[in-house]
Amino acid sequence: MNRFTRSHLLLYAVHIVLALLVLLPLAFAFVSSFRPLEDIYKYMSPITWKTFWPSNFTWGAYQMLFTERGFGQIFLNTFFVGAANVIGGLLLGSMAAFAFVYFEFRGKTLLFLLVLLTFMIPFEVISIPLYSLVNSLGWVDTYAGIIIPGIANGLVIFLFRQFFLELPTSLVESARMDGASWLRVYTRIVMPLCKPVTVSASLLIFIQQWESFLWPLIVTRSKEYKVIQVALSDFVTEYATYWNEMFAAVILSILIPVVLLLPLQRYYVQGIANTGSKE
Q1: Would you call 264 helix, strand, or coil by DSSP?
Q2: Where, residue-wise, is CATH 1.10.3720.10 in the chain?
Q3: Least confident span in 67-81, 153-167, 219-233, 265-279
């Protein structure tokens, strides 16, 4: 029993240390977002309770974000891009997965292997050719240029395909025998059963777009289409770094994914767990 207790105490201690390593920097960023710029590192050495408690509390950094930095528009841009990618990605990904599971056509296996390759290749490898394509279409510095390249998501297709493989084939066969069209099978029978993987894919797409930096940086030039991750780089200038405003923007950028993920985490985990390797 003593050995069992010691092992649990050691495990709890490791968890506490790991939690502190993750939470203390976030706590410092949160507290520093309510400090004046000149007080950001004033209480760092030695570390005391003042390090994690603002002595000169101010909302100035948050006010600057929305009055001078235009973060209202930036948040709307980021949310719009994420929502558009979720809608388009779910529709395209689920329909592609439906075709891979229920249709037979030449080159099906090879095409699916190509789909798998799309999320295994680093984005940096295709960023320049993708920019050339988007530029030739006249989509540079537009919402279309930010959104459309991200709609086709190989990982989302894979998740839906694996989930569809777990569904009883008798449901689809019975519907087809009763005269249901493939569109009706897809919309009325298959998709209503896919709530967990739909939530998982939605969160995956949205968080991926919310955290996207490289592609929006490449494809946009004006402030009108700026998104949150690109905007975070504006606080570091040639002459100064506006740490309090940066910390405030970081805290706000974290809130949206957390608010979405916490109430839906059960469906997210369930959707990932149900995407087995059945062939």
Answers
A1: helix
A2: 69-274
A3: 265-279
